[in-house]
# Entry
Amino acid sequence: MAKEIKTIGVLTSGGDAPGMNAAIRAVVRKAIGNGVKVKGIKKGYQGLLNEEIVDMEKKDVSDTIQKGGTILGTARCPEFKFEEVQQKAAEICRAHEIDGLVVIGGDGSYRGAQALARQGINTVGIPGTIDLDIACTDYTIGFDTAINTAMQAIDKVRDTSSSHERCSIIEVMGRNAGYIALWCGVANGAEDILLPEKYDFNEQSIINNIIKNRKFGKTHHIIVNAEGIGHSTSMARRIEAATGIETRATILGYMQRGGSPTCKDRFYASIMGAYATDILCAGKSNRVVGYRNAEFVDFDIEEALQMKKEIPEYQFQVSKLLSQ
# Structure
């Protein structure tokens, strides 16, 4: 028989993402609507270990859905990989009468949730990451806001790049995943898009492309470079030396994590938060919420972590064609 859930905890872990507050709000209000108490855990797993735990009511999440970041705060917690630390965290949950936990974050956050499930705490993960790099879901909270923030910034850089007839390398986030670079590269009409999954480190081909385009009369050259490749400033120096064309690097950085979430991020995060709460209340554990084929679904965390996500080959080929 499924364990009755009387109190749900909610935390945000890892990198923050626009829309996390919408998910927190949905968890709080759906849980209370189900007759379940809610406790907010500040600063992720580190805050759980420090017992930074507060009661949450509906009013505590009023006027939060439009805010970027996370009202609960977040932090990295490398020591959470150790079993004795996981046991301590589970004991703290039990001491605060938390028998269900919603974890909003990425793959690393899921591993922490999985560890707590092994310790007897019912857990459900929600995909909150701007990188869109979680394989079990077609959508992750924060991605839409991040790509729109980056797209608008790249448009502005493109204007000044044209005015000065220069080459611009614009570095976007994505340590191991090139989805932000791919989407912005296509949406911004970039001449080159460098993805960690596809880049062959053939810088000469980029140089040749710049020279060819300049001969055809192009007054600018936009290169969207993913963070996982990086080294944009040194790349700019080498390209300028090889082409004689003024080349500048712009690193967008953490601005992509911030800002008021888009309608899409608010809506998806809200539904995911409510869905996670419902499956916890139904007695499920060790699950992760996803969005696939236009439906909200859930997977076993172990199954989700085993899945691999690749840049779709057709999308990559189209991006190359459109950049010519």
